[in-house]
Amino acid sequence: MSRRVLILAERSESGITDASYELIEAASRLAGGPDGVSAVLPVGDASEAEGLREVLPAGELLLVEGPAHASPTADGTAAAVLHAREASGAECVLLPHDPVGWDVAPLVAARLGTAAATAVSALSWREDGIAAKRSAFLGKFVQEVEAPGLPAVATVERGAFPAREPGPALSVRILPSPVGPGDLRSRLVEVRDAGAGGVDLTAADVVVAAGRGLGGPENLDIVRELANALGGVVGASRAVTDAGWLPHELQIGSSGATVSPKLYVACAISGAIQHLVGMRGSRFVVAINKDPDAPIFGAADVGIVGDALEVIPALTEAVRNSG
């Protein structure tokens, strides 16, 4: 039996985001094909409707149009998603597991009187809801959770599904927004580039990333020395930035930066899916971890099983001597 699924599409300066195409793939599998997928995109002006239709390969594209959506806000986006869900009759709403999804999913779920399954990597129907899989304990375990009640709401982990190739939607509908600027409790004031002391992780050819297995911030100097020897920059796992060892601007993963360097060195990083998503585009990966079963080794071209506090200085010395 085919069922309709709604996804939230997003745009960046370069066009429709990769996360949107991953959501379309996830929704297509759940709906039994792309024809059962509706994609909602809140817009201030729907004049680009036909151009957007050509690049969103869903059953239908729903543009929720109005001045309330000229600048993105959580409550404005949630109102657009709820409006599109009612118009499409979707039994499940999928959002990206990113800062937008973190804000919007709870608002949508609360209005629908249901629960939101978060950071999911697999989805299936149940008689009265959906079942989802998600990683736990830094990727060492997989949980299966059930969200009872339809319509269901879930955020999908980046990288859990391959991105569907751009293509045309079967149809496009323009829906007048149910809210105006005066109905919103929040507004976008400005967008700032957080930077990171001049470091642009996304443009670096070499990234040396620090993980919590290093033990403490006092051991970060050996990571910096290796990065300097390789002519690269320092990145970090979420555990490291959450602990305050390094600024959040250096975080790599689904809730941080996505990098694609020529060389990626993972230092004492276990390799949870949230981190792997952020570095999966790396051309060559070297992993250093004392746990031979660490998931990071599954993504590595070269794996070194050993104490990072001993391996990293030896590797730095070898790099310097090779020059």
Sequence stretches where pLDDT stays below 50 over 5 or more residues: none
Reported for the largest beta sheet, the result is: 7 strands, parallel
The average pLDDT score comes to 91
Relative strand content: 25-35%
What is the CA–CA distance across the termini?
63 Å
Describe this structure in words.
The model has no long low-confidence stretch (mean pLDDT about 90). The strands form 4 sheets. The protein has a 7-stranded parallel β-sheet with strand order 7-11-6-1-4-5-12, with helices on both faces. Helix 3 packs across helix 4 (about 100-110). The termini are far apart. The chain folds into 2 domains: about 5-185, 3-Layer(aba) Sandwich (Rossmann fold); about 200-320, TPP-binding domain (Rossmann fold), CATH 3.40.50.1220. By secondary structure, the chain is an alpha/beta fold. It has helices at about 20-30, 50-55, 75-90, 100-110, 220-230, 240, 275-280, 310-320; strands spanning about 5-10, 10, 15, 35-45, 60-65, 90-95, 115-120, 120-125, 130-135, 140-150, 150-155, 170-175, 205-210, 235, 265, 285-290, 300-305.
Describe how the helices and strands are arranged.
Layout: E1 5-8, E2 11-12, E3 15-16, H1 18-31, E4 37-43, H2 49-53, E5 60-65, H3 74-88, E6 92-96, H4 99-112, E7 116-120, E8 122-126, E9 129-136, E10 141-148, E11 152-156, E12 171-176, E13 206-210, H5 220-230, E14 233-236, H6 238-242, E15 263-267, H7 273-279, E16 284-289, E17 302-305, H8 308-322
Parallel strand pairs: 1-4, 1-6, 4-5, 5-12, 6-11, 7-11, 13-14, 13-15, 15-16, 16-17
Antiparallel strand pairs: 2-3, 8-9, 9-10
